[in-house]
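Bumping my old thread because nobody answered last time. Still need a sequence for this structure:
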């Protein structure tokens, strides 16, 4: 992201509401989509800018939902400038409307996802699961950045993606 900033691109990134939430049971993919749309996308779009949404892992679901209805073409048709010009999915997933993250795994979490108390999840061995092909120093740095994901976000149905 530093390279994009140095090249003059504006970057908006924050942890989703479902990460390290004080109330993980209340979280959902819809909450995360609304957060991405209102907090990260719309300030740029409303200032007449073109936006590329880059999503990784779980955020592909809420990110695609957030972009729905905000493409350049959709906004132009209503006389509004700005909008989403692209979606980039990096090791990400997108569910069909009505499906959840767990729909593709028989309604269950993957075996490497640990159910923690109070509706949170974590990963059993993040080095092997996420960072098995990067230098150890990069893996160590990334693992320190991981948070707990709200379990409910994996089970709530997705809205329509862009």
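Sorry it took so long. Here it is:
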């Amino acid at each position: 992201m530093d390279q994009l900033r140095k090249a003059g691109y504006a970057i908006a990134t924050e942890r989703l509401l479902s990460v390290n939430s004080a109330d993980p049971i209340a979280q959902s993919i819809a909450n995360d989509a609304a957060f991405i749309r209102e907090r990260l996308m719309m300030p740029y779009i409303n200032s007449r800018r073109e936006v590329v949404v880059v999503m990784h892992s779980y955020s592909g679901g809420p990110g695609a939902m957030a972009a729905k209805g905000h493409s350049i073409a959709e906004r132009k048709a209503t006389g509004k400038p700005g909008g989403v010009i692209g979606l980039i999915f990096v090791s990400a997933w997108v569910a069909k409307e009505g499906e959840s993250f767990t729909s593709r795994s028989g309604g269950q979490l993957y075996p490497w996802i640990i159910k923690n108390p109070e509706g949170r999840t974590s990963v059993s061995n993040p080095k092997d699961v996420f960072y098995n092909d990067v230098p150890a120093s990069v893996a160590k740095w990334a693992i320190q950045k991981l948070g707990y994901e709200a379990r409910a976000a994996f089970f709530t149905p997705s809205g329509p993606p862009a």
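The helical segments are 2-6, 29-45, 60-67, 72-77, 126-129, 136-145, 151-155. Let me know if any region looks off to you.
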